[in-house]
Design goal:
Oligomer: single chain
Largest sheet: none
Radius of gyration: 14 Å
Number of helices: 5
Shape: globular
Structural class: mainly alpha
């Protein structure tokens, strides 16, 4: 379930929408998680573990102002990282970058 909910999106429009929605949470996560120098795959694993904990402890977290909206923002931030890595990291290595330059 976690892999399915956090997998890469399919289109540049979906990516842009997620980016706009998740920017505050993404900025916070980047500061907190990306400070150590580690591979993106390791960071994704750590973030997915964190997301799994958020899902498992949904009720107690909701009582601490971490409800469905914040969980959705975290999920979107993970999706953005996975998508950016897939499209730009893997895409650059394979020569198949999936960015639509006409939307810039």
């Amino acid at each position: 379930m976690v892999r399915k909910e956090t997998r890469a999106v399919g289109t540049p429009a979906e990516f842009q929408t997620l980016l706009e929605q998740a920017r505050p949470e993404l900025d916070r996560i980047v500061r907190e998680v990306m400070e150590p120098s580690q591979p993106i795959s390791t960071t994704l694993t750590e973030l997915r573990d964190l997301y799994l904990a958020v899902v498992q402890y949904e009720a107690p977290l909701a009582s601490k102002a971490y409800g469905p909206e914040r969980r959705a923002l975290l999920r979107g931030a993970i999706q953005l990282l996975d998508t950016a890595n897939l499209w730009f990291g893997e895409g650059r290595r394979t020569g198949r970058i999936r960015c639509d330059r006409s939307t810039s």
